Every structure is written in structure tokens, then in C-alpha cells.
Amino acid sequence: MLWYGVRRLVAVMGFVLGMAGAFAGAARAEDPSFLTFGGGAFDIGEDDTAAQAEVQWRPDLKLWIFHPMLGANVTSDGAVYGYAGISLDLFFGNRIVLRPSFAPGLFYEGDGKDLGHVIEFRSAVELAWRFDDRSRLGVELSHRSNAGIGDDNPGEESLMLFYHLPLTGW
Fold first, then answer.
1. Would you call 142 helix, strand, or coil by DSSP?
2. Those residues with Cβ within 8 angstroms of residue 67's Cβ, 6 or more apart along the chain or in another chain
3. What pLDDT digit, counting tens, does each position of 122-152 carry?
4. What is the pLDDT at residue 67?
5. Which of 10-14, 111-115, 142-146 shows the lowest per-residue confidence on average (mean pLDDT)?
6. Burial of 20 (0-12, 13-18, 19+ CB in 10 A)
7. From CA 11, how far away is CA 50, in angstroms rounded?
């Protein structure tokens, strides 16, 4: 099970790095830091689906081609997840942004779904529209899993709507 997850992660990262190389010329170095707000559904398509709210901060720093990010979300079942990770902005023209991301974090289940471990890994992809003021509105699909480090690894998928507020001068 763990080997399958590692192979899948390597394949996704290979794809992301290949795409990054293909779109490196389209990167927007002038983009500022972002404070992101989101709402949506935790564990979509399951019996214990819950409402979810999220906040994320992405400074205008770059680590090679990646942007660091810090975030936290809560669900209507009292679950809390805090994470730190990286994301990559891939631009298709000036308006469409594809943003894959990866982040390890700490999870507290509250009265909601037990994900099998306190350490959970979040992988996501967002498709967003970039406005003239550099703000963005996007839809994100994410997956959380403990990558087999726990006895149980049910995982979950979330579907979120995000608004990215540009922060100039941060």
C-alpha cells in the first residue's frame, strides 16, 4: 500500500516538474503574496460529508519554482487540519492558473471522519481565473491521506471554492 502511494507521488511530481519546465516562461514573478479564503465540502461523496472552511497564506517567496504556503481548515464536524507545504503556479495565458500543491500537516478528527493518523498529507490541484488586480477565483480538488503510516488509511477528498486576495507589500 505504501509503495503504491510512493509510486503515485513520484509520477505526479514528475508530471508537475515537466509541466513547470514547459510553462517556465509563463510564470508571473510579479504576483504578490496571497491570503486565500475558501469554503466547500470535506469527504465528498461519502456518508459523513461535512462543510469545510479554509484559510491559507502564500508569501511572494519562491523556493526554486515553488511557492511556500501555510494553511488551516475546519469542518462542521469539528475536525481541524493545519499544514505547511508548497505550490506551483502554471499559467495558461494571463487568466487561467493551474496550481498543484502538496503539504504535510496535523489532523484532529473532532466528531468527524477518522483518517487513521494525526499526520496527514494533502495533495491538491486548483484551477483558477486571474483577475486584473491579480486576485483569483478557483475550484480545488484535494486529497488527504496518511500514506500508510497509520493502521488505517481511508483518505478523503475535498472540493473547495477559493478566493485569493493579493497582498501587496507583504
1. strand
2. 58, 59, 60, 61, 86, 87, 88, 89
3. 999 999 999 999 999 999 999 999 999 988 9
4. 95
5. 10-14
6. middle
7. 30
Q: Determine the residue type at 11.
A: A
Averaged pLDDT, 31-46: 94
**Is the pLDDT reported for residue 37 higher than 50?**
yes
| Closest to 82 (Cα-Cα) out of 92, 91, 71 | 71
3-state secondary structure the chain: CHHHHHHHHHHHHHHHHHHHHHCHHHCCCCCCEEEEEEEEEECCCCCCCEEEEEEEEECCCCECCEEEEEEEEEECCCCEEEEEEEECCEEECCCEEEEEEEEEEEEECCCCCCCCCCEEEEEEEEEEEECCCCCEEEEEEEEEECCCCCCCCCCEEEEEEEEEEEECCC
Distance CA 167, CA 140 (A): 21
Return the bridge partners of 98, or none.
90, 127
Q: How many residues can be counted in the chain?
A: 170
Measured on CA atoms in the order 142, 69, 80, 117, is the torsion positive or negative? positive
Nearest CA-CA partner of 127 in 74, 91, 155: 91
Name every residue whose Cβ is closer than 8 Å to that of residue 8 and which is 6 or more positions away in sequence. Answer: none
